[in-house]
UniProtKB/TrEMBL annotation:
It comes from the Bacteria. The record marks Y141, K186 as: Important for catalysis. Its EC number is 1.1.1.85. This is 3-isopropylmalate dehydrogenase. It comes from Dyella flagellata. Pfam families: Iso_dh (PF00180). Mg(2+) binds at D218, D242, D246. Residues 4-343 form the Isopropylmalate dehydrogenase-like domain. Keywords: Amino-acid biosynthesis, Branched-chain amino acid biosynthesis, Cytoplasm, Leucine biosynthesis, Magnesium, Manganese, Metal-binding, NAD, Oxidoreductase. Its cofactor is Mn(2+); Mg(2+). Pathway: Amino-acid biosynthesis; L-leucine biosynthesis; L-leucine from 3-methyl-2-oxobutanoate: step 3/4. Catalyzes the oxidation of 3-carboxy-2-hydroxy-4-methylpentanoate (3-isopropylmalate) to 3-carboxy-4-methyl-2-oxopentanoate. The product decarboxylates to 4-methyl-2 oxopentanoate.
Length: 351
């Protein structure tokens, strides 16, 4: 197959980890006979420097025409003045909205070789295999904002249709996994959460084979630490999802390891590691590229329907985690390029 992939390296370590992910995709293409065409565009701080806009029109246009988009990270101290009118993160929110990618998928597993890096005891981490589905284009992040000298508001708004579509996505994914959905809200306090809960409960009846459980977000924050292995698919709104997924990421041992996919309905998928631009290590060639490489695997699975190739990349990553080399964030000494090369070499071992 032929596919056109737009890459948005962004800022900080973004370009370093994306280079590695593209190299792995090229190696997969070579081995499988597929042809991937890459086209790189600006987003975030580097786009602000070059054009004044965090999401230039040319970038958005290219993304809309692509089969999939692979993004590094945006932001950094250079652009983080809170008074600034234009900020790199606006580019990220704008592209998610423009592509209509309302469902953010974040899988979490804890590799046995890394369990010792996790703040939790080893036995709690056995069998952890969670898929977060975070609503990505609604809620407080996109609501009206007001500000006077001494008052600020952020409107949190959800429509039934917005909740329905992300819920259906979560249930469909659960069907392919362990048939269990946990919906997280704050229905004892928030009106948006009451709408969320009643909508999820109704949609669940379309999936009688999938079990539904509701949790309040505060108790979910605790349960993720005390019983992480109990959960299969966790679906929640934008703000709660942002917070819970970072909490869950800590269980895996390093932010550098975790991928994400943001999907809409028949639109272009957006794939990115969950970490930020890591300005403290940018430019040193030491960033862990595995989150970006696993995001590339998700791209193959969800946008190009190349499940076998995706699974091969995931197996190669697992092989490298078991056998080394390891990057600094997970206690090793290897740089980004060495990890990239080890994953590519492992593609042949696991095939
Ligand atoms: P961060 O994820 O960039 O870094 C947090 C810590 O994790 C740092 O110590 C960093 O060195 C380490 N780390 C992150 N990725 C790593 C990797 N691949 N390999 C090894 N170590 C890694 O989060 P932070 O420091 O809160 O934010 C830095 C900048 O990134 C800010 O400007 C923030 O706004 C932006 N950001 C961007 C995101 C995105 O583009 N999706 C997401 C989160 C933050
Ligand atoms: Mg976040």
């Amino acid at each position: 197959m032929k596919a056109r992939i737009v890459t948005l390296p962004g800022d900080g370590v973004g370009p370093e980890v994306l280079d590695a992910a593209v190299a792995v995709l090229e190696a997969v293409a070579e081995r499988s006979g597929h042809s991937f065409e890459f086209e790189s565009h600006l987003i975030g701080g580097c786009a602000i420097d070059a054009t004044g806009e965090p999401l230039p029109a040319a970038t958005l246009e290219a993304c809309k025409k692509a089969d999939a988009v692979l993004l590094g990270a945006v932001g950094g101290p250079k652009w983080s003045d809170p008074q600034a009118k234009v900020r790199p993160e606006q580019g990220l929110l704008a592209i998610r909205a423009a592509l209509g990618v309302y469902a953010n998928l974040r899988p979490l597993q804890v590799h046995p070789a890394l369990a010792s890096l996790s703040p939790l005891k080893n036995e709690k981490l056995k069998h952890v295999d969670v898929l977060f589905v975070r609503e990505l284009t609604g809620g407080a992040y996109f609501g009206a904002k007001t500000r006077t000298t001494d008052t600020a508001t952020d409107e949190c708004k959800y429509t039934v249709a917005e909740v329905e579509r992300v819920t259906r996505r979560a249930f469909a994914l659960a069907r392919e996994r362990r048939q269990h959905v946990t919906s997280v809200d704050k229905a004892n306090v928030l009106e948006t959460s009451r709408l969320w809960r009643s909508t999820v409960t109704r949609i669940a009846t379309e999936y009688p084979d999938v079990k539904l459980e509701h949790q309040l977000v505060d108790s979910m924050a605790m349960l993720l630490l005390t019983q992480p292995a109990r959960y299969d698919v966790i679906v929640t709104e934008n703000l709660f999802g942002d917070i819970l997924t970072d909490e869950a990421a800590a269980l895996a041992g390093s932010l550098g390891l975790l991928p994400s996919a943001s999907l809409g309905e028949g639109t272009v998928g957006l794939y990115e590691p969950i970490h930020g631009s890591a300005p403290d290590i940018a430019g040193q060639g030491v960033a862990n590229p595995l989150g970006a490489i696993l995001s590339a695997a998700m791209l193959l699975r969800h946008s190009l329907d190349l499940d076998v190739e995706a699974t091969t990349i995931e197996a190669a990553v697992s092989h490298v985690l078991s056998n080394g080399p390891h990057s600094r964030d997970i206690g090793g000494k290897a740089g980004t390029a060495a990890i990239r090369d080890a994953v590519i070499a492992a593609l042949d071992d696991v095939a």
